[in-house]
Design brief:
Elements (H helix, E strand, L loop, with lengths): L2 E5 L2 E3 L5 E8 L8 E6 L6 E6 L5 E3 L7 E6 L4 E6 L8 E7 L13 E2 L3 E5 L1
Parallel strand pairs: 2-11
Antiparallel strand pairs: 1-3, 3-8, 4-5, 4-9, 5-6, 7-8, 9-10, 9-11
Amino acid sequence: DVQLVESGGGSVQAGNSLRLSCSASGTKMVRYCMAWFRQVPGKEREVVATIDTDGGANNYNSGKGRFAIFRDNAKNTVYMEMKHLKPEDTAMYYCAAPVLMGNCPTLDSAYWGQGTQVTVS
């Protein structure tokens, strides 16, 4: 089974940065498009960034311009660098891997980590 473990969240002041990490086991991450999602209580989980197997990255929604996703396949880890954090970035951040190789993870088809909380004040 694919297991994902996120880390790096915390409480920071607005304007600061955080780097989230997602370590995978049970699979070679290099084979998959990986993604970061986030969720605020009461709202739907939304995609923030994806990264393809060749390293091509895409940012979505509020992640555009401030968040950067990257991967270290040798460490089987995907990261997200978040800069200029705002209070509205406060959320639980989840790493995701696709169920089907060749696809990027989606809300309906993904393996999920347990999440890491980011709080910006």
